[in-house]
Amino acid sequence: MTLNMGPQHPSTHGVLRVALELDGETILACKPIIGYLHTGMEKQAEYKTYTQSIPQTDRMDYISPLSNNLAFCLAAEKLLGIEPPARVQAIRVLLTELTRISSHAVWMGTHAIDIGALTVFWYTFREREKVLSIYDMVAGARMTASYFRVGGLSMDIPEGLLERCEKFVDEMPAHIDEYEKLLTKNPIWLARTRGVAPLSAKDAVAWGVTGPSLRGSGVNWDLRKAQPYSGYETYDFDVPLGSNGDAFDRYTVRVAEMRESTKIAKQAIRRVRELGEKGPYRVRDYKYVLPPREEVKTSMEALIHHFKIVAHGFFPPVGEAYAAVEAPKGELGFYFVSDGTPRPWRMKVRSPSFINLQALPIMVQGKLVADVIAAIGSIDIVLGEIDR
Amino acid sequence: MPLTAERVEQRLRERFPGTAFERQVGEAVRDHTLVLPADQLVEVCTFLRDDPDMDFAMLAWMGGVDYLPRAPRFEAVYQLLSLSNALRFTLKVRVGEEQPRVPTVVGVWPTANWHERETYDFYGIEFTGHPDLTRILLPEDWVGWPLRKDSPLGYEEVAFTHNTPGRKVPSPALKKLAPKKVKYRAQ
């Protein structure tokens, strides 16, 4: 029998369609069918300046907008050959780690709903809301923050942000304990996740799976450690690993990652304090990056640069660059080809959800229909990012 | 001694002496990139995956680029990732406009499956030997290859406005939203 799951199904995290070939309730073959949310972001980027594309990235993985901003900016900065000041890097680390916490919180809530535990959702969304209000505070938007810019930030952090972040990361471990109380030893949760949707380390690597789904299979690969960016090599944190590669291991890895993220965020807050609560928030390279507002009002040259960059965009050198970050879902990277004009000749997005979803059929082969729901939840996909 | 991209290139040149490798150079080519002929692709990839020193067990991503009006017009870009060496290496294959064909690497890394389908979907590059070369993000009945440079940015009329009095017919100019080429830089 062929069963069509989706595209409109609450457990598919967007509009994913899965065609299942069944024998009774056993899955003989599974084929994910995607593209329902395709909006041609890569094509659109070729018609926009680099800065104009940043809001576009928010809408890919809309659960973790700042990680997307960061990957975009790092790739463009690599192309330009510039590096933002240490203060900017610390702020970026702080905010992307909060993003990771909020993304994992959303994942946990929705994954638990999918397999029947409704309560967790109300707890995790409470904390997610706190992160969203931090976005609101820094960028003026709750979900589509677009806070990072090529070469820095769109504006300096507001007063009181660090206290608010500090309060959040201090409270967070207790909240994670709350979530764990609801799930980790819950017999129904264990029955639905332990041994379900297993993925061996070898398969995970061959299928290009990255992020917590790869680490759940026991592969020690975290870009923050292996190929550090934004100064991650100077932070002290561990990379949690699973052993069996089942849905439960992916769950424990993500829970542990939330705890590690609070550790990193704490260190980042301290670092931002050391480097100044107010300070430089952009590179001083006015060929590529907007000069600060105050300077525009007093210096003729700064005004010219401001006008040129706003009117035309910046002109990167001819060449190409790829940079990736460890986004909450895996390796998120951007590949730019530049022909020297203010618009990228090509922008390619390496979106982790797209690649992780490809491993779904081997996870559920020979399993039951109910396991498909658990498997989709456990690899943490966002369809906005898959279809782009 | 940690493996470097230079060392990988050197090993490849030693191992495949007859193959015309070409290191991509440019003002801002930030990653070590090697261009190779399409017919050698699978062999080189298999070597890079299986050699214990190289150990490129993962294909991080692959994608296409259209360089119209250059000939050969298309490029297929493969980024390999060696987890044990924490090293990335980029391979490129160039194909012309007439029947763009590249051998598939699905046999080397199964993850290439969707990447190649996406590249086929966007650019019309055919991956010979691919088990299921169909459109992936666009509808099955879509005509054309949207990410090719000669494919215009589309325009869709707003729903239910066809009989609105005084509606503006979208001008054909909208279809050519392509930015004006401003030459600020000597090529």
Give the topology:
The complex is a heterodimer of chains A (388) and B (187).
Chain A: E1 2-5, E2 17-23, E3 26-33, H1 41-45, H2 50-58, H3 65-80, H4 86-114, H5 119-139, E4 148-149, E5 152-153, H6 161-183, H7 187-193, H8 201-206, H9 212-216, H10 223-226, H11 247-275, H12 293-298, H13 300-312, E6 319-327, E7 330-338, E8 346-350, H14 352-357, H15 360-364, H16 369-379, H17 383-387
Helix pairs in contact in A: 2-3, 3-4, 4-5, 4-11, 4-16, 5-6, 6-11, 11-16
Chain B: H1 5-15, E1 22-23, E2 28-29, E3 33-35, H2 41-50, E4 58-66, E5 74-82, E6 87-95, E7 101-103, H3 112-123, E8 126-128, H4 172-175
Parallel strand pairs in B: 3-6, 7-8
Antiparallel strand pairs in B: 1-3, 4-5, 5-6
Give an overview of the whole structure.
The complex is a heterodimer of chains A (388) and B (187). Chain A is mainly alpha-helical and 388 residues long. Chain A has a single domain (2-387), classed as Cytochrome-c3 Hydrogenase, chain B. Chain A is 52% helix and 12% strand. Chain A is built from 17 helices and eight strands. Chain A has helices at 41-45, 50-58, 65-80, 86-114, 119-139, 161-183, 187-193, 201-206, 212-216, 223-226, 247-275, 293-298, 300-312, 352-357, 360-364, 369-379, 383-387; strands at residues 2-5, 17-23, 26-33, 148-149, 152-153, 319-327, 330-338, 346-350. In chain A, strands 1-2-3 form a three-stranded antiparallel β-sheet. In chain A, strands 6-7-8 form a three-stranded antiparallel β-sheet. In chain A, helix 4 (86-114) runs antiparallel to helix 5 (119-139), helix 5 packs antiparallel against helix 6 (161-183) and helix 11 (247-275) runs parallel beside helix 16 (369-379). The radius of gyration of chain A is 21 Å and the shape is globular. The mean pLDDT of chain A is 90. Chain B is of the alpha/beta class. Chain B has a single domain, classed as NADH:ubiquinone oxidoreductase Nqo5 subunit (Beta Polymerase, domain 2, 2-Layer Sandwich). Chain B has four helices and eight strands. The radius of gyration of chain B is 20 Å and the shape is elongated. In chain B, a hairpin with a 4-residue loop joins strand 5 and strand 6 (87-95). Chain B is 20% helix and 21% strand. The chains are: A mainly alpha (388), B alpha/beta (187). Strand 6 (319-327) of chain A pairs parallel with strand 2 (28-29) of chain B, so a sheet runs across the interface.
